[in-house]
């Protein structure tokens, strides 16, 4: 695959991250809980990784971070913990556009434990309905779980403000920050956020490793029970190479943040402008004012997004239609459905950038996509002015 524009599904492991991990598969193989030097070296490396994450998310203490197997486990842990530590409360507030790692669990809790789940709706730009949010917040709510930014559209939610509101009713506030980490500055010290989930593979770290931030003083109950690892908060021998890689990826993300944000935004904007100029009846979903700098989610009216993705793939261009875990199933995007049921029937094509993305990638997409859309719409494309014109590379694009 020569052009990879699906960085919200997963990212390439940075070579510096890989180099940092390798020794922990070989010479430094010790168990971090062991008392001898080989174990202590692994324990020290884990402490460094915790500090690297602490710096990236602006946590007050490094012990506020536990390592998990990724975003899914972190989300499950946060929600189940809140219900355990506040048994007198039996409601959850979340949004209609969360990742399945939150929504599937909430649906399960509703069915099996009689938990009441408020799924706050969004408007056509994916913005949260603040009145509905306010109305759902009562002293019956154990936890609010609202994502920092949406993985499909990039829409950013005002989590600092939402966490203040949740605090007024004594609910724990959790945010799934998986798509936001490395693409937005995060400083937890200055917010009322109690818990935050992140995942290594979304910012050039390895897969299968992530973290949950638990603010000091917030009551917590472990999900995975067993040994005494991680101060009894997550049992099981730690994935030291993965954790070291996660820490290194956090360090690189912090170093590169400003430069990366500017770079991915310039590529994203170049792509959007080019698509909107070249292809009529095309629109971008998500909040135009508050969106992740690396993400665009585009609807080509009249054609299904999976067909566009399929033909782009034939041209060596990787993008997404819907999110990686629901693509392949014929289910519509629940995110688009919540925003715009008309668009949901067709779906949207998501392009997501990273600092490895290149200008040539954008130019290549802009070269082939008008022909693909034209082929699928079964007619010649219209220019922005509505005038019919033939695109020279249409034959090549249709292959
Ligand atoms: C918003 C969001 N939350 C959670 C996850 C799950 O993370 P992981 O793949 O590390 O379990 C993802 C990954 O797609 C995501 O986009
Ligand atoms: S893999 Fe990203 S949404 Fe599921």
TrEMBL record:
Enzyme Commission (EC) number: 2.8.1.7
A biological-process GO annotation: amino acid metabolic process
Matches recorded under Gene3D superfamilies: 1.10.260.50, Aspartate Aminotransferase, domain 1, Type I PLP-dependent aspartate aminotransferase-like (Major domain)
Keyword Mitochondrion among UniProt keywords: no
One GO MF term attached to the UniProt entry: metal ion binding
Keywords: Iron, Iron-sulfur, Metal-binding, Nitrogen fixation, Pyridoxal phosphate, Transferase
Family annotation (Pfam families): Aminotran_5 (PF00266)
Free-text function comment from the UniProt entry: Catalyzes the removal of elemental sulfur atoms from cysteine to produce alanine. Seems to participate in the biosynthesis of the nitrogenase metalloclusters by providing the inorganic sulfur required for the Fe-S core formation.
Protein name, per record: Cysteine desulfurase
């Amino acid at each position: 695959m020569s052009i990879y524009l699906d960085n919200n599904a997963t990212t390439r492991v940075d070579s510096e991250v890989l180099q940092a991990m390798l020794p922990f598969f070989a010479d430094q193989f010790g168990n971090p809980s062991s008392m001898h030097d080989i174990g202590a070296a692994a324990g020290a490396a884990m402490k460094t990784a915790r500090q690297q994450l602490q710096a990236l998310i602006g946590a007050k203490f490094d012990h506020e971070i536990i390592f998990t197997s990724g975003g899914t486990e972190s989300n499950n842990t946060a929600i189940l913990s809140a219900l355990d530590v506040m048994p007198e409360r039996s409601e959850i507030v979340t949004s209609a556009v969360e990742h399945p790692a939150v929504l599937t669990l909430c649906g399960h809790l509703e069915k099996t434990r009689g938990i009441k789940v408020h799924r706050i709706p969004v408007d056509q730009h994916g913005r949260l309905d603040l009145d509905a949010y306010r109305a759902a917040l009562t002293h019956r709510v154990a936890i609010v779980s609202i994502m920092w930014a949406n993985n499909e559209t990039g829409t950013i939610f005002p989590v600092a403000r939402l966490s203040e509101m949740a605090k007024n009713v004594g609910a724990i506030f959790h945010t799934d920050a998986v798509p936001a980490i490395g693409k937005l500055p995060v400083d937890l010290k200055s917010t009322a956020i109690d818990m935050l989930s992140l995942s290594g593979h979304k910012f050039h770290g390895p897969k299968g490793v992530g973290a949950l931030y638990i603010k000091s003083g917030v009551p917590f109950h472990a999900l995975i029970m067993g040994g005494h690892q991680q101060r009894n908060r997550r049992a099981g021998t730690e994935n030291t190479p993965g954790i070291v890689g996660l820490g290194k990826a956090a360090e690189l993300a912090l170093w590169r943040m400003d430069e990366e944000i500017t770079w991915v935004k310039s590529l994203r904007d170049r792509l959007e402008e080019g698509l909107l100029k070249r292809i009529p009846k095309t629109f971008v979903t998500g909040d135009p004012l508050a969106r992740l700098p690396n993400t665009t989610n585009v609807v080509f009216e009249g054609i299904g997004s999976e067909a566009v993705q399929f033909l782009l793939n034939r041209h060596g261009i990787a993008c997404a239609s819907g999110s990686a875990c629901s693509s392949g199933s014929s289910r519509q995007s629940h995110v688009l459905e919540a925003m715009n049921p008309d668009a949901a029937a067709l779906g949207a094509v998501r392009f997501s950038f990273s600092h490895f993305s290149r200008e040539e990638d954008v130019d290549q997409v802009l070269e082939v996509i008008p022909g693909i859309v034209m082929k699928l719409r079964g007619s010649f494309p219209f220019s922005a002015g509505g005038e019919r014109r033939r695109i020279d590379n249409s034959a090549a694009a249709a292959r």
